[in-house]
Amino acid sequence: MPDIHDEDSYEPHPKPGVSHLDYAGEQGMAVEQETLVERDPVKREEARSLWGDAWRDLRGRPIFLISAVLILLLVVMAIFPWAFTDTDPRKADLVNDYLRRPNWGDVFGGGWFGYDAQGRSIYARVIYGARASITVGIFVTAAVTVLGGLTGMVAGYFGGAVDAVVSRITDIFFGIPLLLGALVLLNAFATRTVWSVVIALGVLGWTQIARVMRGAVLTVKQADFVVAGRALGAGTGRLMFRHILPNAIAPVIVVATIALGGYIATEATLSFLGIGLQDPTISWGIDISSAQKVIRTAPYVLFFPAAALSVTVLAFIMLGDAVRDALDPKLR
Amino acid sequence: MNTAVDTAKREREAPYEGPLLDVRDLHVEFVTRDGVAKAVNGVDYSVSAGETLAVLGESGSGKSVTAQAIMGILDMPPARIPRGEIRFRGRDMLTMGKEERRKIRGQKIAMIFQDALSALNPVLSVGYQLGEMFRAHRGVSRAEAREKAVELMERVRIPAAKQRVNDYPHQFSGGMRQRIMIAMALALEPDLIIADEPTTALDVTVQAQVMDLLAELQAEYNMGLILITHDLGVVADVADKIAVMYAGRIVETAPVHELYARPAHPYTRGLLDSIPRLDQKGQELYAIKGLPPNLLRIPPGCAFNPRCPRAQDVCRAEVPDLFPVTEEDGTPLEGRGSACFFWKETLHDR
User: Fold this and answer.
1) Is residue A103 part of a domain?
2) What is the pLDDT of residues A199-233, one digit of tens each?
3) Residues of B with CB below 8 A from A243's CB?
4) Do the chains contact at B103 and A233, CB–CB below 8 Å?
5) Which residues of B62-95 are buried (b: 16+ CB within 10 A; e: fewer)?
6) In a domain, A1, yes or no
7) Facing residue for A49 by CB, picked from B73, B123, B184
8) By the CB < 8 Å criterion, does B201 face chain A?
9) Which of A51, A225, A235 sits opposite B120 (nearest CB)?
10) CA angle, A63 as apex, A58 and A65 as ends, to 5°?
11) Is the pLDDT of residue A26 over 50?
């Protein structure tokens, strides 16, 4: 038989056909022997489930690989910023004038990207700024996925009056503009940390996921296997979480991944406006904001944090696109 | 906890006298924007242990809706059951609590669906889904559930069950998938299985294999079986008795071979005549004139009257009961009934 997995065919695993033959022989199923020999358990391990298929599809996509590498890098940066720079991002040394251009020779050094108006290393601040952005992005996305996912699941599964009430509540929240709502909410916090931003965006951002989840659940709920599950005595919880959820989660994952980039941008916007994160937290938004004052004389002070922000947002949107294409080619 | 188990055991030990399932005067309606669609209009049937009842009818005759009402899987609303009883071992399931009803599903009454590919969850392995029956109802461990799944797959003769237990539904052929559906329904050894067109999605050679398997397992477990189908050929060998449905009513009941030999309702007659037969090669195939009635506007009188070759004024005015069918000399024919004013003429073909 021709081997469809050419790239794997050199693997020196033993052909397990013999044992299969024995087994099939015991059962007296000569007809099945041929197909069993073809079925190589090593290869059969992959790409059988929906997720396996999606993963195989993703691995071959350059967009996925690029965005995944970028995101991995950003996450490592957020967790271990000191691994990328020795410079203290908060050290303001006025000897380091912002009018001194970036020193391209000073690779990974404090002066690589130049210094900001207060004499702080822009390179170090770009590195340390990743933590706020990634934290906000990931935790807001986790919060909205859980909150919106549950809400949408309840609305879609129970339908009727429950759906009407839950959907109207969703609509009310949906009507609040994310940025404006966050501005108002964040004003209520005396000191604003990463967590206050996460709470504000989480409370306002779940509606999109809720709507997507509700729609997906409504579709999956009609499927025969849900009716069959009920006919064979599955309870509500089992139907919702074991049978409907895995079939309805794909669009939610796609929307959540793309939205993650949006939350990072929103955090930067809030910080830029002075209502998001505050010093001493290091955030690209704050740095972009403070760079405004010197933009004419030293544009690179603005450029590097802005570029870092753009690349991060882009990476998540690209990842979302790739995941969408892999999970649901119809949406393309 | 213990008492529940004990009661369940006692129930099993003392077999219930009388039919396993007894449906009486069942009505099901669907409230739609255009009005009330009367899908089931007074169905009576019963099934005993070890017995196979075939429910025959075209699409929209109410055969599947009746089954769904028995299973309790109708979406209510839009469906509603204004009248009727569904007695399982003498207890009316329509008046039971939700949880009690859920415990009957899968454990006492199980259902086999038409299209196994869509009735199996595409993202879960068949082993998981089979094992789930035991995990959900019996609370066994994951490993034990897997073993039971393999056992079940072997019982419905899926080759190399051990190797295939972790495969996903789309990796099986249609016949194998339907076997998995059967295995799932059999898992907890229910008293009654409802099979809703179990072989319609399969090709003819596989149909026979699946039907044989089902019949064999039914005999082995002494289960009651309700076989819903529109295919006269499928039921001939396996069914004990047949109920023919039209527009939500049973129009004829009979032991299977008698129905084929001597139908007592013009509709049944028409169905039998529209089967292609080798000895009539070259002749034009008979077809029942007209279309099945719109359930929103079922014609007055006998619902079949607009299509019936024997229709008289009485058929347009009165709804016929299910009359007992007798021989010409008045000898009653056991288990036979026909909802036609002219059953005598139809039976004796005059």
Assistant:
1) yes
2) 999 999 899 999 999 999 988 888 888 888 888 87
3) 121, 124
4) yes
5) bbbbbbbbbbbbbeeeebebeebbbbbbeeebbe
6) no
7) B123
8) no
9) A225
10) 65
11) no
Contacting B residues, span 133-162, partner chain A, CB-CB under 8 Å: 133, 136-137, 159-160, 162
Domains of chain B: 16-239 (3.40.50.300), 264-347 (no CATH)
**Residues in B 19-58 with any Cβ partner in A closer than 8 A:** none
* C-beta separation of B317 from B346 below 8 A: no
Which of B103, B118, B166 minimises the CB distance to A223? B118
State the complex-level ipTM.
0.76
Structure tokens at A92: 């303001």
CATH code at A105? 1.10.3720.10
Instruction: Indicate yes or no: CB of B123 within 8 angstroms of CB of A246.
Output: yes
Does residue A115 belong to any structural domain of this protein?
A: yes
Who among A24, A223, A231 is closest to B105 (CB)? A231
**Contact between chains at A234 and B132 (C-beta distance less than 8 A):** yes
Q: What is residue A330's predicted lDDT score, i.e. its pLDDT?
A: 60
Do A190 and A302 fall within a single domain? yes
Instruction: Give domain status of residue A153, yes or no.
Output: yes
- For residue B123, the chain A residues in CB contact (below 8 A) are 49-51, 246-247
Indicate the residue of B110, B119, B171 with minimum beta-carbon distance to A48: B171
pLDDT one-digit tens code per residue, B126-176? 888 888 887 877 778 888 878 888 888 888 788 887 778 788 888 888 788
> Closest residue of B to A22, CA-based?
B160
Q: Å from B118 to nearest chain A CA?
A: 5
Strand order in the sheet with B21-32: B35-47, B21-32, B79-88, B91-92
Quick one: A157 and A11 in the same domain?
Answer: no
Q: Is A228 in contact with B113 (Cβ distance < 8 A)?
A: yes
Spell out the SS3 assignment of chain B. CHHHHHHHHHHHHCCCCCCCEEEEEEEEEEEECCEEEEEEEEEEEEECCCCEEEEECCCCCCHHHHHHHHHCCCCCCCEEEEEEEEEECCEEHHHCCHHHHHHHECCCEEEECCCHHHHCCCCCCHHHHHHHHHHHHCCCCHHHHHHHHHHHHHHCCCCCHHHHCCCCHHHCCHHHHHHHHHHHHHCCCCCEEEEECCCCCCCHHHHHHHHHHHHHHHHHHCCEEEEEECCHHHHHCCCCEEEEEECCEEEEEEEHHHHHHCCCCHHHHHHHHCCCCHHHCCCCCCCCCCCCCCCCCCCCCCCCHHHCCCCCHHHHHCCCCCEEEECCCCCEEEEEEECCCCHHHHHCCC
Which of chain B's residues have a Cβ under 8 Å away from the Cβ of A26? Answer: none
- For residue A331, name the pLDDT band (cuts at 50, 70, 90): low
Measure in Å the smallest separation between the Cα of A44 and chain B Cα atoms: 9
Looking at CA atoms only, how far is residue A39 from chain B in angstroms?
10
CA distance B335 to B346: 17
Tokens of A14: 């033993």
Contact between residue B214 and residue B222 where contact means Cβ atoms under 8 Å apart:
no
Higher pLDDT, A49 or A237: A237
| Domain around A13 | 6-45
Q: Structurally, how many domains does chain A consist of?
A: 2
Answer yes or no: do B132 and A29 touch at CB < 8 A. Answer: no
- Per residue in B165-188, pLDDT (tens digit) is 788 888 888 788 888 888 888 888
Specify whether A36 is located in the same domain as A133. Answer: no
Mutation choice for A interface testing from B123, B165, B194 by most A CBs within 10 A: B123
Alpha-carbon distance B202 to nearest alpha carbon in chain A (angstroms): 17
